[in-house]
Model the fold of this input.
Amino acid sequence: MPAASSTGVAILGAGLFAKEAHLPGLETLKGLAPTLKAVYSRSLKSSSELADEAKKRLGVAPDVYHDGDSSANLDVLLARSDINSVIVVLPITQQPSIILKALAAGKHVLSEKPVAPDVASGIKLIAEYNATYKTKGLVWRVAENFEAEPGYIAAGRAIRDGKIGKVTFFSSRVVNYIDQDSKWYKTPWRTVPDYQGGFLLDGGVHSTAALRVMLPSAMTHLSGFASLNKDWLAPHDTINTIIKAADGSHGIFELSFAAPSASRSSVGNGTIITGTDGWLSVSQTKVKDSVTGGDKSVFRVIIKSAKTDAHGKLGPEKEEIIDEAVRGVEVELASFFAAAFEGKDDGLGDPLGALRDVAIIEAALNSEGQPINLEKLVSGS
Ligand SMILES: *[C@@H]1O[C@H](CO)[C@@H](O)[C@H](O)[C@H]1NC(C)=O
Ligand SMILES: *[C@@H]1O[C@H](CO)[C@@H](O)[C@H](O)[C@H]1NC(C)=O
Done:
């Protein structure tokens, strides 16, 4: 297999996340990533804008592909033998068919979360990959940057190392304030979503991925309620759920995009996991960067632990703080290229993990208070 540096990559999709996350990710990786040789978007305008941005950040001039020119459309791009991998950053409902098209053209694929708009289409996609493309040595991974965040991975490791004892209960709360002028809301496919949950699916899979990485056993059952409180966020903007995991622990997962004002999103959110010998919290914060002198974003894990002795007396409480820079996109990209070009599989980006994330959101939207078996849902039975 050729080394990453001697191969070419293309970005399919020219939206905000391609510009603001994937280009900087490739920039950080430098020679560890293949050369960006092409970009594709439906329109010439957005494809050219991404190419211009790539020039600034990466110092390369990728070729521009779009639907308006049959000699420079997606099929022509995918026919290039010097492009071995693609990063798919397209609207949610367009992704599955483009993923299959790229695999059929013999490309390794990294596709943005969610894996598919719903569990059924995710299962179908994974089955087709398994049966037709995996056997040919093609790598398909789902880019879920929260799953790759070193902060969440460190929290999961601390729990597996027994630092808080056996997990008993947990809570994950994210309340967002979003107004109609938000750049994310103004993305046409997000303004009028053609998939379940709207922002709850698009943003919610990040929160469920974080829980999946941190909890020591799989989440197996969910019951919840969903509602729409701001009609312009249809179909739903809020879910409140309770979740049970295979080890018997249980917790609360709350997600809303319907905060009445920005101040509501500044209280109450974050993740806390509680065990028999302590608890830990994870939240995003800013610290001084010792290299640049400016601010940098980190995930901060605070671990508080205390053992009870043989007489039932609680010992002194210890505190440990772990700060990890926010760099999930960079990590997921590096991991994908290592899997595609060096045959190294670190387990990140497994489509089945991403399917579990969609299952939690789908179950929360449909539960109406009834318990839903998540294992059954992801196995398609
Ligand atoms: C695809 O393959 C993986 C790994 O071999 C397996 O765990 C999974 O159940 C398969 N999924 C489907 C839908 O065939
Ligand atoms: C809560 O979450 C929102 C959305 O992610 C974020 O903007 C806000 O800063 C968070 N608040 C706290 C206190 O962590």
